[in-house]
Amino acid sequence: MNPRTAFALDGPSVDGSAYRDVVDLAGHAPGWVDDAVTAWSAYGLGLFAVLMVVVWWRARRTGTRSAVEALAVPVVVVVAYVLNDVLKALVHEVRPCRSLHLATLEACPAPGDWSFPSNHAAIAAAAAVALLFVSRRIGAVAVVAACAMGASRVWVGAHYPHDVVVGMLVGALISALLMAGVRRWHRPLVRLLAATRLRPLLVA
Fold first, then answer.
1. Options 3.30.70, 3.30.980, 3.10.450, 1.20.144; which CATH number does 15-201 get?
2. Prediction pTM value
3. What is the pLDDT of residues 13-61, one digit of tens each?
4. Which spans in 44-63 are helix H?
5. Contact in structure between 118 and 167 (CB atoms under 8 Å)
């Protein structure tokens, strides 16, 4: 067996039937529903960027610890994305639209663009968990948005349900661990940033 495919995951055997059911439901849904879900799936991650800016803007008025946590959110999300993408490169699961040959709302990605775990789900979950560390209210909004993002990736046919679930778990776990570290070591991080040109980002 080629070592590059030694860890290939057979997606259809996991929850291929559930995927078929969702794609079939999407195929019979009103056009405006499909359009809305497709738009959210494609551009919804932008909302998390907006929430990051909002939470940072508010955190500057709360204190340096909150400000440092808010500044850490995008960094944590990038780390979660990179690690999830590494896992995706190790587990060569073919996209469901190719394995099952179904017509989907989203164009089927090119061969070699692996499916497991979902990067969109990992990014959304990582952002939601990180935002919860800074603001429960904004974090709660992000959690709902993250769940909607994960569901949308199955609806448009880009991922199996297990791709989304694992992607969200990976993103959430990495985010929680890193943000816990930021909270624990916030004092040295504040001193480090205060000694650089980034100091104005810590206070209003």
1. 1.20.144
2. 0.90
3. 888 899 999 999 999 999 999 999 999 999 999 999 999 999 999 998 8
4. 45-59
5. yes
